Amino acid sequence: MTSTATPPAAPASAPRTRRQWVTLGVAAVLLAVLCLVAARWQWQRYHEREAQIDLIESNYEAAPVPLAELVPGAGAELARDDVWRPAVVEGTYVPEATVLLRNRPVNSTPGFHVLVPFETEVGGDEVVLVIDRGFVPLGKDASAPSSVPEPPEGEVSAVVTLRADEPSSTRGAPDGQVQAISTDQVLATGPDGAGWAEGRTVGAYGQLRSEDPAAVVSPGALPPPDTNPGSHLSYTFQWIVFALGAVGGFVVLWRRERQPVTVSAGDLLARHDLQEPRSSRSRRPTAEEEEDALIEAQSQRHDATS
């Protein structure tokens, strides 16, 4: 009869040194701190987005007021609390100074916004306000639209949503196109430059809602502002969970390794059996050997708990 030899037990891993524990602890703390920094950043983004949504909800559906109530004259800036408010402007479009805004999709559709300067009077000043009249899709080669609808001629009464000027873009664009709605940059990009409007601009632009008389063909209407809060709040909680996981994982690892190791008499007998020559493994241990192994196991248990 062939006897099957018992494979040797894997050696127990050596306990981590003090230096290794310190390294692991510092790494866990640093990871937790980085996660908390990310959580705080997401929390700030969440509050900023909530403030934007509150402003949109309070202003966008407000009753239109004359432009002079929000932008009192040439050179005036639109107040932060008045962004998204509707205003009534009366005057004439300057179609020869039309400029296209590129790389600004609408409802995930690529295309261009049609930007047309509008001459009006505010508080006795002649003012030029850039109006975003709407959206036109890409043309055949995607470098320009197939056609750009003309604005209505003569005196026009328009209702626009007021927006603060965007910072000028440093990115290049083809002739007659811009990458941002910055009044000075839009006017400078027109065929005649910005000289004709010098000293008559304001720090705001308008998004067209309606105009009377209406154009024969109008660009696509711009959608209402987005009020989706995004995922900033959920990301905040996720980063906090990651921070707790980093510290908690270190504590669990430390507690597991600190637990006392108990050795039974059977384990000692198995080790003794593995160390015995093959010729002596077949014999049963004597009563004295079993008693010695039991005493040794009790002694090791006492040393581990003391």
Q: Unreliable segments (pLDDT under 50, ≥5 consecutive)? A: none
Number of helices: 5
SSE order, one letter for each helix or strand: HEEEEEEEHEHHH
Q: What integer value in Å does the Rg equal?
A: 38 Å
Mean pLDDT: 87
- Portion of residues in beta strands equals 15-25%
Number of beta-strand segments: 8
Largest sheet: 5 strands, mixed, barrel
- Could you tell me how far the N terminus lies from the C terminus, measured between alpha carbons in angstroms? 47 Å
Spatially, the strands of the biggest sheet line up as 2-4-5-8-6
Helix content: 25-40%
Protein structure class? alpha/beta
Shape, please? Answer: elongated
Q: In words, what does this structure look like?
A:
The structure is a single chain. The chain is an alpha/beta fold and 306 residues long. It has a domain at 61-212. The protein contains five helices and eight strands; from the N terminus they run αβββββββαβααα. The protein has helices spanning 18-59, 183-189, 232-258, 265-275, 287-305; strands at 65-66, 86-93, 99-101, 111-122, 125-137, 156-164, 177-178, 201-212. Strand 4 and strand 5 form a beta hairpin. The model has no long low-confidence stretch (mean pLDDT 87).
Task: Describe the structure using short key phrases.
35% helix; 5 helices; alpha/beta; elongated; 306 residues
Topology:
Blueprint: H1 18-59, E1 65-66, E2 86-93, E3 99-101, E4 111-122, E5 125-137, E6 156-164, E7 177-178, H2 183-189, E8 201-212, H3 232-258, H4 265-275, H5 287-305
Parallel strand pairs: 1-2, 3-7, 5-8
Antiparallel strand pairs: 2-4, 2-6, 3-4, 4-5, 6-8
